[in-house]
Specification:
With 278 residues, this protein is α/β, with parallel strands linked by helices. 21% of the residues lie in helices and 22% in strands. β5 and β6 form a beta hairpin. α2 runs antiparallel to α3. GO terms for molecular function: catalytic activity.
Length: 278
């Protein structure tokens, strides 16, 4: 079982715990036709992976010992969904929600239009979904020290902002991701995504298609490397799309295919870029 990142004294500065997710009107029908038996939401609501977002926020509140926030987040899933429904301006359109909870259990929800996308991208990668152009995936040039602020998603994101600026990523719409690296050279996560790499065998080389192994083809960094316990990561592990394996910067191969995921975009392809073109 993965161990928690080392505990650090928490500053008195104000910060909140957050989780971002997609409201997708087409999601209930996609679940019904393609994932009814394995999708982890008994409500099959338009809120993508809603139970995992609620549980993620609750785990963060418990870590920071925010008793009032814990009490708010322990409400049943149906009530939580109804609470979020009140922030949706138009239930026929997709939206990006940013749930923000403070230490006193006060919850605000920022809602912005979400870019249209193929709803099947919210499910695990399969042959049913149309192909899409891969994102460029680069490696941060400086290490990040694991802490509760890398294990849990909060508004204290200076490390992630700095990593993106070092990689010349200026907009969330840029099809580029930067991999966050701990002082031991292990990949922790992406700045806004969970990465998945082809499973490594002996010699740290990607294995084939996994047909001769009981292990999944794909791996994602373990929480012991210091990264975030993301919602799509949890979904991918629960459905055995991937397993956990520590991946170092030296294990990566220029031009290697990978997958990325988050609670707003679902799953989408990436391509490792070690050497930038001259």
């Amino acid at each position: 079982m993965a161990s928690d990142p080392p505990s650090l004294p928490l500053p008195e500065e104000t910060f909140q715990i957050i989780s971002s997710l997609r409201y997708e009107p087409a999601l209930p029908e996609v679940i019904k036709t393609s994932a009814a038996e394995c999708y982890p939401d008994s409500l099959q609501s338009p809120f993508y992976l809603l139970p995992y977002h609620q549980q993620r926020l609750l785990s963060a509140a418990e870590c920071f010992k925010w008793t009032e926030a814990v009490a708010f987040l322990q409400q049943d899933l149906k009530s939580f969904a109804q609470f979020l429904d009140g922030f949706i301006p138009d239930q026929t359109k997709p939206w990006r929600l940013r749930i923000v909870v403070d230490r006193h259990g006060r919850c605000t929800v920022d809602v912005n239009p979400a870019m249209p996308m193929e709803p099947l991208s919210l499910l695990l990668p399969s042959d049913k979904r149309p192909p899409s152009d891969p994102w460029r995936v680069v490696v941060d040039s400086q290490p990040t020290i694991p802490s509760p602020f890398t294990r849990y998603k909060t508004t204290s994101r200076n490390n992630y902002t700095a990593a993106r600026l070092r990689s010349n990523i200026t907009s969330p719409q840029d099809p580029v991701e930067v991999l966050i690296v701990n002082p031991n050279g292990q990949i922790m996560e992406g700045s806004i995504t969970t990465p998945y790499f082809r499973r490594r065998g002996h010699g740290s080389q990607p294995e084939g298609n996994g047909q001769n192994s009981s292990e999944p083809t794909w791996v994602t960094p373990p929480l012991s490397s210091g990264g975030n316990a993301g919602t799509t990561r949890r979904y991918a592990l629960a459905q055995r799309f991937c397993s956990e394996q520590a991946i170092t910067v030296g294990d990566l191969i220029d031009g290697e295919e990978c997958w990325l995921s988050n609670g707003v975009r679902g799953f989408f392809p990436g391509k490792i870029v070690i050497s930038e073109p001259k």
